[in-house]
């Protein structure tokens, strides 16, 4: 049985830290402070990320004493697969159960360029987007960095059986990544590490609904990570109706932050624009959107939305999607329509969790 620790301030019982939350240099520092050799860090990382060990006992080239120290101080986070769905197109959706009984979603998508995994950063979400199943029931808690890392490791283990690997990561699952900023940054560093999962920075994308102060902070990190904004509307009034966060962080201020990011990093920004039938998908919306992003180093990703029973939005007809795309292209905007995947499973973000775990999403 896993041991727990007591937080002296809150008096709450909490789990020990996940060893997956530690960067290599942090783990090496801990080892030295606990009377061990620094080089053991790389051995442990090898067990975690190359051999994909599921217990400290498996780490046979470590002394029994060190294995006991690790077990006393850390948890080797293992996620329990509650539900696994596989689409006819190869998309795999996992509902993972955490140590406290909460559940999260992780999705594996297969592309011509490789296998991409979409990870979750929070149990639930407090942002309240009116079209999203993830926000049903609000935010339960943030994930520890190691719990985000464990999602990639768990899916990679499933791919090991097929001789494949995770090549790309998108942080677009349940939750707002910038609302769990420190854990997200730690996660990025760990999966990008040569000694860790060695996923290239330019193969990683993080998306935000628009927490403006964190966008400035993220720009100043000067990472080579791809950056996306969940936009979904071309004006303040409509965006506030679709995304309540726009009432706190208004669209004009968001666009200023985006310009700062582009100037600071020199990198392109992607705007995610979900198309909702009769709401934000008319030609006049496309023209307004083109005007909004004019002159920016950007790309617009049009997303035909998945139907969510708990929400009232319907999918835009195909003809209208193509008309919207053509309008943007006629205005010189770089745009693509996202390829639909997982249409025959619970594909919408948060949908599987809402369906399987009603007590979490009430």
Automatic annotation (TrEMBL):
Keyword line: 4Fe-4S, Cytoplasm, Disulfide bond, Iron, Iron-sulfur, Metal-binding, Methyltransferase, rRNA processing, S-adenosyl-L-methionine, Transferase, tRNA processing
Q: Which family, according to the similarity comment?
A: Belongs to the radical SAM superfamily. RlmN family.
| Gene Ontology MF terms | methyltransferase activity
Its main subcellular localisation, reduced to a broad class, is cytoplasm
The cofactor note reads: Binds 1 [4Fe-4S] cluster. The cluster is coordinated with 3 cysteines and an exchangeable S-adenosyl-L-methionine.
Record-listed E.C. numbers? 2.1.1.192
Query: What cofactor does its activity depend on?
Result: [4Fe-4S] cluster
Where in or outside the cell?
Answer: Cytoplasm
Q: Which organism is it from?
A: Bacillus songklensis
HAMAP family registered for this protein in UniProt: RNA_methyltr_RlmN
Q: What else is known?
A: Reaction proceeds by a ping-pong mechanism involving intermediate methylation of a conserved cysteine residue.
Q: What residues does S-adenosyl-L-methionine bind to?
A: 175-176, 207, 230-232, 306
Check the record and name the Gene3D superfamilies matching this protein: 1.10.150.530, Aldolase class I
| Active site, per annotation | 105 (proton acceptor), 349 (s-methylcysteine intermediate)
Q: Which residues bind [4Fe-4S] cluster?
A: 125, 129, 132
What is the official name of this protein in its record? Probable dual-specificity RNA methyltransferase RlmN
Q: Which GO terms describe its biological process?
A: methylation
Functionally, this protein is described as follows: Specifically methylates position 2 of adenine 2503 in 23S rRNA and position 2 of adenine 37 in tRNAs.
Q: Which domain of life is it from?
A: Bacteria
- Give the catalysed reaction(s), semicolon-separated: adenosine(2503) in 23S rRNA + 2 reduced [2Fe-2S]-[ferredoxin] + 2 S-adenosyl-L-methionine = 2-methyladenosine(2503) in 23S rRNA + 5'-deoxyadenosine + L-methionine + 2 oxidized [2Fe-2S]-[ferredoxin] + S-adenosyl-L-homocysteine; adenosine(37) in tRNA + 2 reduced [2Fe-2S]-[ferredoxin] + 2 S-adenosyl-L-methionine = 2-methyladenosine(37) in tRNA + 5'-deoxyadenosine + L-methionine + 2 oxidized [2Fe-2S]-[ferredoxin] + S-adenosyl-L-homocysteine
In what residue span(s) does the Radical SAM core domain sit? 111-344
Q: Which InterPro entries match?
A: Aldolase_TIM, Methyltransferase_A, RlmN_N, RNA_MTrfase_RlmN, rRNA_lsu_MTrfase_RlmN/Cfr, rSAM, rSAM_sf
Enumerate the NCBIfam families for this protein: rRNA_mod_RlmN
């Amino acid at each position: 049985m896993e041991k727990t620790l007591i937080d002296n301030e809150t008096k709450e019982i909490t789990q020990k830290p996940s060893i997956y939350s530690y960067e290599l240099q942090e783990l090496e520092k801990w080892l030295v402070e606990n009377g061990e050799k620094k080089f053991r860090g790389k051995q442990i990382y090898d067990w975690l990320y190359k051999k994909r060990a599921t217990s400290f006992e498996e780490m046979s080239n470590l002394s029994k004493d060190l294995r006991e120290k690790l077990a006393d101080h850390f948890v080797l986070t293992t996620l329990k697969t509650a539900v696994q769905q596989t689409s006819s197109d190869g998309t795999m959706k996992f509902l993972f159960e955490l140590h406290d009984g909460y559940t999260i979603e992780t999705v594996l998508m297969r592309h011509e360029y490789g296998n991409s995994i979409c990870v979750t950063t929070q149990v639930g979400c407090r942002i309240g987007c009116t079209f999203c199943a993830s926000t049903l029931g609000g935010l339960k808690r943030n994930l520890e960095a190691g719990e985000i890392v464990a999602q990639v490791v768990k899916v990679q283990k499933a791919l090991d059986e097929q001789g494949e690997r995770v090549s790309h990561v998108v942080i677009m699952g349940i939750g707002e990544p910038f609302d769990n900023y420190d854990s997200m940054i730690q996660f990025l560093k760990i999966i990008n590490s040569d000694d860790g999962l060695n996923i290239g920075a330019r193969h990683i994308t993080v998306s935000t609904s628009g927490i403006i102060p964190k966008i400035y902070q993220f720009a100043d990190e000067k990472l080579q990570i791809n950056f996306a904004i969940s936009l979904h509307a071309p004006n303040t009034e409509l965006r506030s109706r679709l995304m309540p966060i726009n009432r706190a962080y208004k669209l004009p201020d968001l666009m200023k932050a985006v310009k700062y990011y582009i100037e600071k990093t020199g990198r392109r920004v992607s705007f995610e624009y979900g198309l909702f039938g009769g709401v934000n998908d008319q030609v006049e919306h496309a023209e307004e959107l083109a005007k909004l992003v004019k002159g920016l180093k950007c790309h617009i990703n049009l997303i035909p939305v998945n139907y969510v029973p708990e929400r009232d939005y319907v999918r835009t007809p195909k003809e209208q999607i193509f008309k919207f795309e053509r309008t943007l292209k006629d205005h010189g905007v770089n745009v693509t329509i996202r390829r639909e995947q997982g249409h025959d499973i619970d594909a919408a973000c948060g949908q599987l969790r809402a369906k399987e775990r009603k007590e979490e999403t009430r």
